[in-house]
Amino acid sequence: MGTIKHIIFDFDGTLADTWPVMYMAVAGVFRRHDRREISIEDIYAVAGPTELQIIETHLRNREQVKAAVSEFLTDYEQHHDELVERSSAIAELLRTLREAGFGLALFTGKSRRTLDISLEKLRWETEFDHIITGDDVEKRKPSAEGIHRILDKLGWSREHTIFVGDSNDDMLAGQEAGMRTFAAQWMSIVQDKHYLVEPERIFSDIGAFQAFVLSQAQ
Description:
Keywords: Hydrolase
GO molecular function: phosphoglycolate phosphatase activity
CATH superfamily of the largest domain: HAD superfamily/HAD-like
CATH class of the largest domain: Alpha Beta
Largest sheet: 6 strands, parallel
Order of helices and strands: EHHHHHHEHEHEHEEH
Shape: globular
Helix content: 40-55%
InterPro entries: HAD-like_hydrolase_sf, HAD-like_sf, HAD-SF_hydro_IA, HAD_2, HAD_sf, PGP-like_dom2
CATH topology of the largest domain: Rossmann fold
Protein name: HAD superfamily hydrolase (TIGR01549 family)
Number of domains: 2
């Protein structure tokens, strides 16, 4: 195994938990335009496409899709500070890794528009060398297309790059890419606690992950 020089992170469930604001905003547009209630389990069941694609695909009132997407983005931005915590531990992790010289990238299934809102709200707009969202790939996770695009764009080698995520799709994408893959279970709500493909290690503590990565950079 090579030393660690670069880290590709998943976003939701790994660096931030935007599910509460995403669910609130999605449920709101379905309530207003379809006059139906959807649960967070309903959203989990169709997860994979971006938030905007979920609305575009599943809203029954087809004439209101454009308006619903616009309302969703407004609600997502207006309620972000209220419903999404900016973790000081994650902020410190990113700062420490940057100062130590690690390359950092982001591969998320979120839409570019919602991710941009979240990064601005969390003040992480300049933390990453490259970002791939669900809008940037033809095949979403568990495909490794996004990982390949990051490696190709930045010229990073697999030998010196790791992938960190929280879900089964993340573990499968890392395996497909031939990457050392690690599971983050340090959020209060973990999407998947058991994996179809075992990661190299599972971390439930951010500080332990930081110490491990720094030790592997020697």
